[in-house]
Amino acid sequence: MHRFANPTTFMRIANAIFPWAAGLSAVLFLIGLPVALVTSPADYQQGDSVRLFYVHVPAAWISLMVYGMMAVSSAAFLIWRHPMASVSARALAPVGAIFTALALVTGSLWGRPMWGTYWVWDARLTSELLLLFIYLGYIAIADAFEDPERGDKAAAVLGVVGSVNLPIIHFSVEWWNTLHQPSIIKMTGFTVDGSILLPLFLMLGAFTSYTIAIWVLRLRSELLAVKLRNARMSEVSLAPSLNRGAAE
Amino acid sequence: MDSLSTFLDMGGYAAFVWPGYGLAAIGILGLLVTTLRTLRAREKEFAGVRRNRPLSQNVGPGDDA
Q1: A210: closest CA among B31, B26, B22?
Q2: Are B35 and A214 in contact (CB under 8 A)?
Q3: What are the backbone dihedrals phi and psi of residue A180, each rounded to the nearest 5 degrees, phi first?
Q4: What ipTM goes with this model?
Q5: Domains in chain A: how many in total?
Q6: Distance between CA A11 and CA A7 in Å, rounded?
Q7: In a domain, A169, yes or no
Q8: What residues 192-211 of chain A have any CB closer than 8 A to a CB of chain B?
Q9: Any residues with CB less than 8 A from the CB of A119 and at least 6 apart, and which?
């Protein structure tokens, strides 16, 4: 574990993954979008509105996957205090916020024709909205302190505590009565037809590989932000060091 | 042309399907663009910091690096 927490090793692995993730994402979007929008059949009950499924489910999946990654990063930061863990969590939070918002908006646009309403305060929708607020809270707290390391620490606590929301979101459709349909992908198999699964898996793959690629880019960016901050701090501490004898 | 308008009509669900895909595209491409912009800006700034450091430390002729 500590081996991966070394920034050089971590970034070497991340950078090696990047071209594959980016390439796979581009290919899967190029195949997946025409399948999702054109060649896949309209649903016999839902008509063409079923096509929203192919962006809604992947967006919701990414909103949970990214939070899982962020919670692990936050826990690793609190346990080992390694700066790479906070770099990773900071890189992830805006990605998660955007996909959570997309899951909510596409769900809402799908709910209007299918349920007759854009929004209901049921367990699934409310817990997913809470996830958005946790992401936004994380971003706000991480930048709320003058000392960024205090921000990292406070945000990491929120990141870990907020993970209790993940099983709530996942099981909400089984624990409570809800308009939201249950999961179609189960350990025991699938509950829908293959014509729906092909575009769904293409888009799930496209979204997932896109997220991995974006994560690597943002890791590079956040790591540079830390290096720039350190460079500025050493510049500031260089100036008074000229008359160090008097100061210390 | 006829098949195009059928496609755009989305079986009467155009007002829901297209905004859904449009917003997803804006979110996904927007995140990529802002991520790349920030990364480029920081890379540029970092390259500048690296160039300037030796300059400020050893003042004198010959530091064209």
Answers
A1: B31
A2: yes
A3: -70, 135
A4: 0.87
A5: 1
A6: 6
A7: yes
A8: 210
A9: A108, A111, A125
The pLDDT tens digits for A16-65 are 999 999 999 999 999 999 999 999 988 888 889 999 999 999 999 999 99
The reply to whether A127 falls in a domain is: yes
Indicate whether A44 belongs to any domain.
no
Residue A130 falls within a domain, yes or no? yes
Q: How far apart are CA A197 and CA A202, in angstroms?
A: 8
Q: Under an 8 A CB cutoff, do B20 and A98 touch?
A: no
Question: What residue ranges do the domains of chain B occupy?
Answer: 17-49
Instruction: Note the pLDDT tens digit of each residue in A79-103.
Output: 998 878 999 999 999 999 999 999 9
What's chain A's Rg over C-alpha atoms?
A: 22
Q: Per the structure block, which two tokens stand in for A24?
A: 């796979």
CA distance A188 to chain B (A): 31
Which residue from B11, B46, B56 is facing A47, i.e. has the nearest CB?
Answer: B11
User: Is A113 in Cβ contact with B16 (below 8 Å)?
Assistant: yes
